User: What shape does this take?
Amino acid sequence: MPGAEGTGSDVPGAFRARAAELGLRFVANPLGEGYRARAGTANDVAAIAAAIRKGSLAAAERDDEKVIFIAPDSGDVLSLFARLRKDPAIARLVIVTTPAAIRRLLLARYRMALVRDATDRLARWRPDLSARLLVTRIEGAILAVLLFAIAAAVFLLGAPAVAAIEILAGFVFLATVLLRMQAISVVTHRRRHRRTELPRVEPDNLPVYSILLPLYREPHMVAELAGCMQRLVWPREKLDIKLIVEADDSATLAAAKALRLQPPFEILAVPSYGPRTKPKALAFALPLARGEYVTVFDAEDRPDPLQLVEAHLAFERGGADLACVQAPLLVDNTATNGLTALFALEYSVQFDGVLPLLADLDLPLPLGGTSNHFRRAVLEEVGGWDPYNVTEDADLGLRLARFGYRSGVIDRPTLEEAPRTVGVWLGQRTRWLKGWMQTLLVHLRSPRRLLREIGPRRFAYCLLVLFGSLVAAAIHPVYLATALALLFDPARLWRADSPLFAAMTMLSLFNLVSAYGVFVLLSRETFRLRRLPWPASALFYLPAYWLLMSLACYRAIGELIIAPHHWSKTRHVGRRVRPAAQPAEETSEKVAQPVG
Assistant: This one.
């Protein structure tokens, strides 16, 4: 079939030659020549998206001229030639172009229908899984009763109620520390048994891979990002790379067009509609993705060239219920300052420590916002990204588990840029924590249903990972104040008014010391795993870093109330490198060789 999804070449010269062979006109850029796609009668957005993905046929018009654009595969030439000989009048109506040109033609006509569907798709299909309505009436009533009960207890009982609440929070905090202690043994085992080789793969057997690259107000990052994509080891004819840019972001659009990127690159301009969030842009692009697999990279990402190969092998081994694999995110500007060093330590703990442990335990993963690889069919089955959740990755990891799918991890990393200033870091972390709060509110709308769908063990761990992290961030100033008070007056512990206060103080002190100790040990092991220099001197600033985390948590609570869907954009500096061309033959040859 002409222009079958994800197959064949998109090189203009090949289609120009086919047009000449058929005796038909060839137009490389129908939109530029003034043609517009004719509006169809179908209102089915799925059918529209399928037609755009195929890029094989489009009815168009220009003034009074009505034509049909086709993008025939080489195997279709003989049958088309026979049909044209049988009915020569068809030749006046048919024009040959490329699949990419047909996709642009159709997208220009239907982009508003697609963006409206992207914005409302999940909320319309499963409103209980969407963060568009942040708090339902029942949730609001439960929260109000809970807050009233806490306030009443504090008012009636005073300090003992505060102590009891702190002890309960302390046990949640302690459970998160124990989880990270368990991760140390996992990292040690991985380091001792780590293999860096990948089995041989044959390019002819590889599926089409879609890479989604959301960009917003980052024109200086486009060339660097394109260069990194060109270094990925995968046959170019089986890549589908989409640069997703907001339609009113003229600077980034201009930078992308100035590179004159050829297929497999494609620029998608997202109309200004709905929330201005990254997941809205991804939801817009998902129906247009042609790959069997879909992955996301951010503007500053520099993925390992073999990451796609490793993800493909993981899916091949993992079975049909493995829906997603997460690549580790590593910081490559660790030495910039103390903030970037601590960010690097934190990322190392999360992606090389905690997530592999959760994967080994077959638990839902709070995915990273980038370098997660999905089976496209499963991603569409579960509703894709939620445009209204500002931490769409954590939400999606839990949603996959609710639909009966697993998530795993792979080893080939993506290098990322840590925020260099406190202001940028604080905005990013506030958004992350706000999104975790959104995710909890969404998935706990019906706790019994969630428990039934993922089981008691996963339910408990899910609450621990999401809720426990929020508790840890919120309570750290209390723990630090307790430690400082005891440092200046150690006898305070023995003068406690009651055993409850003594228990509270001891638990607070134990939690603080153990949390710092486990973080130090786990970060050292994860850096040893990657054979990276461990920035131990940055640990001197760890208390201040965790106080910043607490500030971000409190800000997130405020934003959740007044601006729940606001997306705080993280600015990136980048390296400003030029893209390096990599021909398809070289890529295919590399894939065919044993890699390591």
